[in-house]
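User: Before I run my own analysis I want an independent prediction to cross-check against. Here's the chain; please return only the structure tokens and, at the end, one sentence I can use as a sanity check.
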Amino acid sequence: MVKKEIPGFILQLLAQRGIEDYTDIEKFLFPKLASLPKPDSMLNLREAAQVVRYFVEKELQIIIWGDYDVDGTTATALLVNFFRELGVDIKWHIPNRLTDGYGLNIRWFEENISSFSSKRFLLITVDNGISSREVVTLIQKLGGVVVVTDHHALPESGIPDCIVVNPEQEKCGFHSDKMAGVGIAFYLAAAIRNEFSKRNDINMKSFLPFVALGTVADMVELTSTNRILVRAGFEELHNPRFTGLIALLEESEIFSGEVTSEDIGFSIGPKINAAGRLGNSQLVVEILTSENPKIAKKKSAELQELNLRRKELCVDDFALAESMVSGYEVAEQKVCVVAGKFHPGVAGIVASKLVELFGVPAIVLAETVDSDRCLTLRGSGRSVEGINLHEMLQQCSDVIIKFGGHAMAAGLSIEPQNLDKFTQMLGKAIREESARDGQKPVRKKSFDVACSIDEAMNPVSIQYLMLMEPFGQGNPAPKFYDKNSIVIQSRNVGVDQRHLSLMFRGQYSQYKGIGFGLGEQLNDVQAESQRSLVYSLTRNRYRGTESWQIRVHSL
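Assistant: Structure tokens:
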């Protein structure tokens, strides 16, 4: 690589990310697995691997307990596939989001312990467990040895009394790496392989596609460690080894194997999450661990049907939410809270759409019946920059049954009779926080660099943009500005003609474009063809064909 050969706008993008030195540019564009931090620096990892070796050698029962999102299901699938290659038959379980909730529950163990192959068993959690201290103790009383692998924040009440592999622990050498649960599961598998010196025939790189999917979909920060893991995972996805991965890619119309972060964020990830939202995350692990191409294909089609159902629910529930709120009241209260017959699995998505519509934090609560057959309001919230939703909920904790989350997203449940009081308290807390800030937020520039469509669509430019992948937290997908774009064709497309299909004139080529949600601007575009354009590049996949096109953000 010669620095002067890199397009100028690519160098600008790298400089915006603090990458200007030649050596740093090379490391960023061409990350190497050899640069990964050594497994020994991950606190308790070796001890965990040694415990696993003991249970394998003694032929005792091993159970993997995952989570229902992309991170949790890919982490579970990774370990199930790994143990299969190790020649070990294990059990695995993903809780039902709608009936079991998040994390460990003792009921499953009490109901299933009779089917375990041994009275003494090993439980390995992935992407959960750090907040299940009491349940871990109960599992240990049943004869279980527990290894918790997780990446979530440590609870104030203390971590479980067992082997804990979680970089959030300050003494962990991976403390600053912000890894996803699936990344930690990968490191555990690698450490287990090292415990079996004769099993170096297991190719650990083949498991990295699972890490790529889970890390990008979970929107963790793309630190140098995560970047190396995800890029290597993308490379392996060119020719994935696992039957289930192939079926999942084909169901997403990805046939070349060249996967982008956008493919995961907008196509593969939502499909996987749809299963969890509708209470069938087991299906995802069944696909990703299948060795039969016909079964994997059939189950991938089932997953697609769930995703279509999820989309229908989102449309219906968003329409219901919109009908329940007044824009004037929302603007005055600085918060949007709705409760009703929503589907709890899509409450977070609907809340996000309300945030987009009104520009204030939003809470969507679904009417559910708890284990005692009492009506409860359970749902999700999403926030805006500058308002820490988790802190706001803490100020309303007196009227909340339970809640959890972080600054931008949270889950919660309340009793119906406390809804009005909760809404008033939350609105008051948000208004006070907004007033305390005292300053209007600085409006961010809507694009990263000025770059003509011709320059961006140049094959060399696209090659370097692909080298900047993966995009995500800490390395956002770039947006470009072309002040002199020329629209030569335009028409409405999609449901209710909501989107805008465009054709742009280039110096030597014409370029297809799509503006999602911009359908109302058709008359303006046809009246004035020369436009100032903010856009990004996207790969269009349709019926087995692939091409690069313009995604229009504003014009």
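Sanity check: Confidence is low (pLDDT under 50) at residues 439-443.
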